[in-house]
Each structure stands twice: as structure tokens, then as C-alpha cells.
Amino acid sequence: MTLEILTPDKKVFEGEATSVTLPGTLGSFEILNHHAPIISTLQDGKLVVRGSGKEEIFFIQGGVVEALNNVVTVLAEGITHK
After folding, report:
1. pLDDT in tens, 22-79
2. Looking at residue 81, what DSSP letter applies?
3. Cβ contact 23:57 at 8 Å
4. In CATH, what number is assigned to the domain containing residue 39?
5. Domain of 14?
6. How many structural domains comprise the chain?
7. pTM score over 0.90
């Protein structure tokens, strides 16, 4: 699936991923390839991107996520990369 992570200032990540773990406001959840359409709010926490045998970790300050047609878009208020 294609993943984009954006903040109001810049695009932080764009690429292919096999899974994304997100800090939802009602608890952590994971989006996998061909996930059903979803829109969810996010709280401050760890966002983990997995793909191509590697893992990237970001820490976000709230936001929203949309998954539709195997494209996942994360709009974060702020972000730091580990």
C-alpha cells in the first residue's frame, strides 16, 4: 500500500508499506494492505511503518488518518522521527 505522512509544514514520508500502526484516540490500531476504508482521529503517540524488511518509527502529536483504495494518508499536527 502507499503511505503518505504529512504535517502542515511538509511531507515527512511517502512510500510503500506493508503495515502501519497508529495511536488512535480510542487505542492503537494497525492498517494492513487492502484494509477496509477508514477515517480516524489520532492522539499523541508512536506511529510505526513496516515494509521492505525494515521498520521506521515516528512520534506524532495528534491528527487524522484516512485509508482508501490501498492509499493511507496521515495528517499529523506535529511529528518527530526516531
Report:
1. 999 999 999 999 999 999 999 999 999 999 889 999 999 999 999 999 999 999 999 9
2. E
3. no
4. 2.60.15.10
5. 2-81
6. 1
7. yes
